[in-house]
Design goal:
Order of helices and strands: EEEEEEHE
Low-confidence stretches: none
Bound molecules: zinc ion
CATH architecture: 2-Layer Sandwich
Helix content: under 10%
Number of domains: 1
Oligomer: single chain
Strand order of the largest sheet: 6-5-7
Number of helices: 1
Length: 82
């Protein structure tokens, strides 16, 4: 079963798709925006302490909820500069 990337519209395998944690839009790692330290988990998990952690975002939610923080494509940490 294939799913369309919510940002770029390309067909992707289910395993390549992540969901924006604000609106649930399916996005791929290449086009989605990862906020490395997202502290907006408090809403969805009221019992847990909202420790910042990486989260996937569609373009509009990255703009709307995390306009001022650093964002990147891909889950991997950027390589440390030597
Ligand atoms: Zn979204
Ligand atoms: Zn994509
Ligand atoms: Zn977020």
């Amino acid at each position: 079963m294939s799913i369309k990337c919510g940002i770029n519209g390309e067909d992707l395998d289910e395993s390549q798709i992540f969901l924006c944690h604000h609106c649930g839009m399916p996005v791929c790692e290449l086009h989605g925006w990862i906020v490395a330290a997202d502290d907006a988990f408090a809403d969805s998990e009221p019992e847990s302490s909202p420790a910042p952690r990486p989260a996937m975002h569609c373009r509009s939610c990255a703009e709307r909820f995390h306009k001022t923080v650093a964002k990147r494509h891909g889950w991997a940490e950027p390589a440390a500069q030597p």
